[in-house]
């Protein structure tokens, strides 16, 4: 048997270090067994999936040195490798389940589902919604079908209180309660599959033998096991890897730690060092050495050396490791080549110069003006915002709402960014002349700079968002008490924008 593993990211935002972490372990497991590593794009969320995000995933993984044997860009015998191009395959499999009484069309409306969940909570019930809860009378199904009402296809799940046994490579036998397994949606009303159906069908048809994924999917394993049984297929071996954690042990999130691979690339980290650091996340070399290459990791790879304790992603430790790589593994000439490829290249300067030329008279004027383009987090403090017209609470509100708005922005162009910022300021009821100075300080460290939207376009989305989050933290951040209130205000601002 040829070992085949896969990584299946969703192209719905910046490529995440967690994706690279899972990809690394799938790659190492397959290659250490003489097997094959596949890349599949899970783009069933058509509203949020973009070609740009897909390309960023491919570029980021290749930048790290991870390559795949089959995928949307290299082809293979099991394609297509984008789920949006496999819709008919999923529908055919759903129809087979319906014919066998193992799935059903559910015409329940969102309002009905909310009422059912509310009633269960009030009754103190904590079990999941089952087919018997969701099925409508036959005549009502016929009425809604005749009216062309939208429906989803749900799977039939056990209604008893028994337990499902899952075999895991790291955890051994894990038992999960069937009472917590809901009648999962398999096919959405738009005809596209959920993760659960697509994951099972694609893994089987693509010959995946081992599924290494994050531990957050462990609770979904009973649904997947059930689907394999329904289809009469052999289930791949499961391995649920521990989640990456912030230093405070919370799940790694962009609110507390930069999570975009593009951010670390833009910051000037070496791909070898970042991959090395991800390899240390819950795994160790036999000699406990901290610095090792991908080739060395492959040579010594053993999945059983993964620790189930939540690995801490510490940017300071990553910086230390990156420094070791720079000093120990690169000659001066090699570092010069890397620095030129990173930012000191003709393309970067070509983008910068049109904005700098109106402000310079001699070459020595360029370095101070261009410094913030080539920097990471800027040395700003709470006092940096003293000259702004907004009070501190309003400053935090403006900057945090700007973070949220720019996290949703997919068209990263100067005019689009300006329109988004202006509409947000209007929605929040803040004059643009008062809204812009805090952005200047967060992005450039000063209000005496080129246009802030030009700066954001040049810096790119990951660095722009990271600097805005850093500015919010400099001002004390958004506590839990304020968060809900601010989220409501942000939603109102968006409504006004619409």
UniProtKB/TrEMBL annotation:
Ranges spanned by the short sequence motif 'HIGH' region, renumbered to the chain: 9-19
Enzyme Commission no: 6.1.1.17
Subcellular location per the Swiss-Prot or TrEMBL entry: Cytoplasm
Motif 'KMSKS' region per record, residues: 251-255
PROSITE patterns membership: AA_TRNA_LIGASE_I
Binding site residues for ATP: 254
Keywords recorded for this protein, A-Z: Aminoacyl-tRNA synthetase, ATP-binding, Cytoplasm, Ligase, Nucleotide-binding, Protein biosynthesis
Domain Aminoacyl-tRNA synthetase class I anticodon-binding: 334-471
Reactions catalysed according to its record: tRNA(Glu) + L-glutamate + ATP = L-glutamyl-tRNA(Glu) + AMP + diphosphate
Ranges of residues in domain Glutamyl/glutaminyl-tRNA synthetase class Ib catalytic: 3-320
GO molecular function, one term: glutamate-tRNA ligase activity
EC category: ligase
Function, as annotated: Catalyzes the attachment of glutamate to tRNA(Glu) in a two-step reaction: glutamate is first activated by ATP to form Glu-AMP and then transferred to the acceptor end of tRNA(Glu).
Subunit annotation: Monomer.
Stated family: Belongs to the class-I aminoacyl-tRNA synthetase family. Glutamate--tRNA ligase type 1 subfamily.
Official protein name in the record: Glutamate--tRNA ligase
Protein source organism: Spongiibacter thalassae
């Amino acid at each position: 048997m040829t070992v085949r593993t896969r990584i299946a990211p969703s192209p719905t935002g910046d490529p995440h270090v967690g994706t690279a972490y899972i990809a690394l372990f799938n790659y190492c497991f397959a290659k250490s067994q003489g097997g094959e590593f596949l890349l599949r794009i899970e783009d069933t969320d058509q509203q949020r999936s973009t070609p740009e995000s897909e390309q960023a995933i491919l570029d980021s993984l290749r930048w790290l040195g991870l390559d795949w044997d089959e995928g949307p860009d290299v082809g293979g015998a099991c394609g297509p490798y984008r789920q949006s191009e496999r819709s008919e395959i999923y529908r055919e499999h759903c129809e087979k389940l319906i014919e066998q009484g193992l799935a059903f069309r559910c015409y329940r409306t969102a309002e009905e589902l909310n009422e059912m969940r509310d009633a269960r909570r009030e009754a103190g019930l904590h079990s999941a919604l089952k087919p018997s809860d969701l099925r409508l009378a036959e005549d009502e199904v016929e009425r809604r079908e005749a009216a062309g009402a939208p429906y989803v296809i749900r799977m039939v799940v056990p209604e008893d209180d028994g337990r499902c046994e899952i075999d895991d490579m790291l955890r051994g036998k894990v038992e999960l309660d069937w009472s917590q397994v809901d009648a999962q949606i398999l096919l959405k009303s738009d005809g596209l599959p959920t993760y659960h159906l697509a994951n099972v069908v694609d893994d089987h048809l693509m010959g995946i033998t081992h599924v290494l994924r994050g531990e957050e999917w462990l609770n979904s394993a009973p649904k997947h096991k059930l689907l394999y049984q329904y289809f009469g297929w052999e289930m791949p071996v499961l391995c649920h890897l521990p989640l990456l954690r912030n230093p405070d042990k919370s799940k790694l999130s962009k609110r507390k730690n930069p999570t975009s691979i593009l951010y670390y690339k833009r910051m000037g980290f070496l791909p070898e060092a970042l991959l090395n650091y991800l390899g240390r996340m819950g795994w160790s070399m036999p000699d406990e050495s901290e610095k090792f290459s991908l080739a060395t990791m492959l040579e010594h790879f053993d999945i059983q050396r993964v620790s189930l304790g939540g690995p801490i992603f510490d940017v300071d430790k990553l910086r230390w490791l990156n420094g070791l790589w720079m000093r120990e593994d690169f000659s001066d000439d090699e570092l010069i080549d890397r620095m030129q490829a990173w930012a000191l290249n003709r393309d970067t300067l070509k983008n910068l110069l049109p904005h700098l030329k109106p402000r310079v008279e001699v070459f020595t004027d360029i370095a101070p003006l261009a410094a913030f383009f080539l920097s990471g987090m800027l040395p700003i403090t709470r006092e940096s915002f003293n000259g702004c017209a907004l009070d501190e609470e309003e400053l935090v509100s403006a900057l945090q709402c700007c973070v949220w708005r720019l996290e949703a922005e997919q068209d990263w162009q100067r005019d689009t960014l300006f329109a988004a910022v202006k509409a947000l300021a209007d929605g929040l009821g803040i004059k643009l002349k008062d809204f812009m100075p805090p952005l200047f300080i967060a992005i450039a460290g000063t209000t005496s700079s080129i246009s802030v939207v030009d700066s954001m376009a040049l810096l790119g989305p990951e660095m722009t968002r990271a600097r805005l989050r850093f500015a919010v933290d400099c001002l004390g951040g958004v506590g839990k008490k304020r968060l809900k209130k601010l989220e409501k205000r942000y939603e109102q601002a968006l409504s006004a924008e619409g």
